[in-house]
Amino acid sequence: MKTSMSIVVVVFFATFLAISAAPPLNPQEACIRRNINRSQPPSSSLEQKTSIFDSLRDNLCRDMARAVMFYVRITGKFPAHYVKAMCNVFGNDEKKVKEYVMEKWLGGSKLLSNVSCAFH
């Protein structure tokens, strides 16, 4: 009985440590990843099932993108937290970040001078 109880306790603590050690998911990083995945060719399945959570995520990502767009329109540069999120998504590869900005953002060439992963 003691052996099985100790195994349960060890498994519980190992699971707890693994979950607490995982980095928290930044919602902006998740939206950037969804945006990248959305640009990939569709899967071979004919039926595209969308859940209520997918539509909520889409609305959240749309609102976040709108907020970033307004910030860019007012200041002429990306917010620092958005640049950090892009750098995290692309593994601090500045070339990939700049390609993403050129591909996804209207007027991306004007924004490139303010995009650097070195400071984040």
UniProtKB/TrEMBL annotation:
Domain of life of the native organism: Eukaryota
Keywords, sorted A to Z: Signal
Signal recorded as keyword: yes
Secretion signal span: 1-21
Record keyword Signal present: yes
UniProt-recorded name of the protein: Transmembrane protein
Organism (species): Arabidopsis thaliana x Arabidopsis arenosa
